[in-house]
């Protein structure tokens, strides 16, 4: 079962710097911490922070969501917590993909409780057709149809994360 390309390396390489400039322009001045959600966002995070032309502290949250292999249950387990305090920071939460929105809702509540100066969300991919809870998405790389995608950090059973493009696997 070979993944079929959906978003090319070239399209990603063009979009990420545009997101970085938009973030630098729209976020208020002051200390900025990017929080990448592991594992799916690790490649996007690495490219995105290099495209934000201002000081950015980098931190990560390890997250596991229970449920069927390709669908979240909304029950989120934090497998690795933040290493830096985010109180008073402008926080940019960096996600790989927002599907039902349940994971993001949980993470936003978790981060908001720690007193950031502001909290924004940047996601590489958005699957709006499957949303179950409303979540704010301030910066979106690409909107995609309701397909299971892999590559550029995203996996299927830990496979395909290192593909340099986003692809669809037929389930
Ligand atoms: P949500 O809570 O929004 O339904 O799902 C968020 C998480 O589900 C993502 O961070 C990701 O881990 C996983 N997920 C949702 N859709 C996909 C997909 O198409 N491909 C992959 N690899 N993971 C997905």
Question: Explain this structure to me?
Answer:
This protein has 171 residues and is an alpha/beta fold. It has one domain: Rossmann fold, CATH 3.40.50. The chain is built from three helices and nine strands, in the order E-H-E-H-E-E-E-H-E-E-E-E. It has a six-stranded mixed sheet, with helices on both faces. Helix 2 links the parallel strand 2 and strand 3. Helix 1 packs across helix 2. The radius of gyration is 15 Å and the shape is globular. It starts with a strand and ends with a strand. The mean pLDDT is 94. The site of guanosine-5'-monophosphate has 18 residues, from strand 5, helix 3 and strand 8.
Helix amount:
10-25%
CATH fold label = Rossmann fold
- The arrangement of helices and strands along the chain is EHEHEEEHEEEE
Main sheet record = 6 strands, mixed
Q: What radius of gyration results from the CA coordinates?
A: 15 Å
**Count of individual domains:** 1
- Rounded average pLDDT: 94
N-to-C CA distance:
9 Å
The assigned structural class equals alpha/beta
Provide a compact summary of the structure.
By secondary structure, this protein is α/β, with parallel strands linked by helices.
Characteristics:
Rossmann fold, globular, alpha/beta
Q: Any chance you could write out the topology, listing elements then pairs?
A:
Elements: E1 4-7, H1 9-26, E2 32-38, H2 42-50, E3 57-65, E4 76-80, E5 90-98, H3 102-112, E6 118-126, E7 139-143, E8 149-150, E9 166-168
Parallel strand pairs: 2-3, 2-5, 5-6, 6-7
Antiparallel strand pairs: 1-9, 3-4, 8-9
Helix pairs in contact: 1-2
Residues 40, 65, 72, 96-104, 148-150, 154-156 line the site of guanosine-5'-monophosphate (5GP).
